[in-house]
Every structure is written in structure tokens, then in C-alpha cells.
Design a protein that fits this description.
- The protein is α/β, with parallel strands linked by helices and 155 residues long.
- It has a single domain, classed as HUPs (Rossmann fold), CATH 3.40.50.620.
- The chain is built from six helices and five strands.
- Strands 3-2-1-4-5 form a five-stranded parallel beta sheet, with helices on both faces.
- β1, α1 and β2 form a beta-alpha-beta unit.
- The longest helix is centred in the C-terminal third of the chain and has 14 residues.
- The N and C termini lie far apart (46 Å).
- 30% of the residues are buried.
């Protein structure tokens, strides 16, 4: 990753996640994340590495990291998508991206706490915004999609 810089006074919003089995909940999360930065914001998304997902969740994602990154970057709302660091280092990501706002999902409580502590300790001027869960329908999480596939094809 190269250092990223704020262009034309745009606020940089950072969002991160696994984005396995991309679904409407992911899209809504990213749309709300970009809105959190205001009208001229730029959304940069960190997509978790396969090894990071396996360490943190105990299983590999269905879709490989390069494909997940490409799918996220293809979304209209996303300005840039990057793969995270193998060792899951949010401090290095913050140093690289230099965000004004970090958007976290409803299911990222531990990461949110780690970020708040890091920002406080380092004295950084970064706003953290929690994005709520979207009750679109029953298929608004990758786990729900996997469960539905199993239910449908076990009959």
C-alpha cells in the first residue's frame, strides 16, 4: 500500500471488513459509511486477508481475498479497496490511509474498542462512526446466505 492523501479537501472515510458473499447489507453499510464523511468524502475500504479471517473467525472465507477486494472496489460507492495487512494492524492502516472518519459495523464492537483506544493513546483527530444493522430481509449477512444455501440444497 502506498501512502494515500486527501485531495481537494475531501474527507477520507475508512471502512473495513471481510465482505465474503457480498450482499445488500454490505452495500448499505458502505453507502452509510461514505455519507458519514459528508458530501465530498472519499471511501477507502480495507478488505481482510484470508489469513486474518481464518485467525479471527476460525475459518477461511468462501471467496478468495483478491476477488473480494475486486468486488468491493467495483461498487459505485467505493473509491478504492485495498487488502489489509497479514498481521491485522489497524495502526499501520491508519498511518497509510490517514482517515478523517472510520466507519465500523454493528458487528465490529471489538475492533471499535481497539480503534478508540488507539486513537486516544496516539492523540489522533479521527471520528469513529458506528453504522447500524440493516433489516432489509433475511439474507443480510453472509452467515444467513450460507445457511439458506444449505437449507435449500439439503432437501
Amino acid at each position: 500500500m502506498n501512502n494515500l492523501s486527501m485531495e481537494d479537501g475531501k474527507k477520507i472515510v475508512l471502512a473495513a471488513g471481510v465482505f465474503d458473499l457480498l450482499h445488500l447489507g454490505h452495500v448499505k453499510f458502505l453507502e452509510e459509511a461514505k455519507k458519514a464523511g459528508g458530501e465530498n468524502s472519499e471511501l477507502i475500504v480495507i478488505v481482510a486477508r484470508d489469513s486474518t479471517v481464518e485467525k479471527r473467525k476460525g475459518k477461511k472465507p468462501v471467496v478468495p481475498e483478491d476477488q473480494r477486494r475486486a468486488l468491493v472496489e467495483a461498487l459505485k460507492v467505493v473509491d478504492m479497496a485495498l487488502l489489509g495487512y497479514e498481521e491485522f494492524d489497524m495502526e499501520k492502516v491508519i498511518e497509510k490511509v490517514k482517515p478523517d472518519v472510520i466507519a465500523v459495523g454493528y458487528d465490529q464492537r471489538t475492533i471499535e474498542e481497539e480503534l478508540r483506544k488507539l486513537i486516544r493513546v496516539k492523540g489522533l483527530d479521527i471520528e469513529i462512526v458506528q453504522i447500524g444493522k440493516f433489516e432489509i430481509d433475511e439474507l443480510n449477512s453472509s452467515s444467513d446466505i450460507k445457511r439458506k444455501i444449505i437449507e435449500t440444497f439439503q432437501r
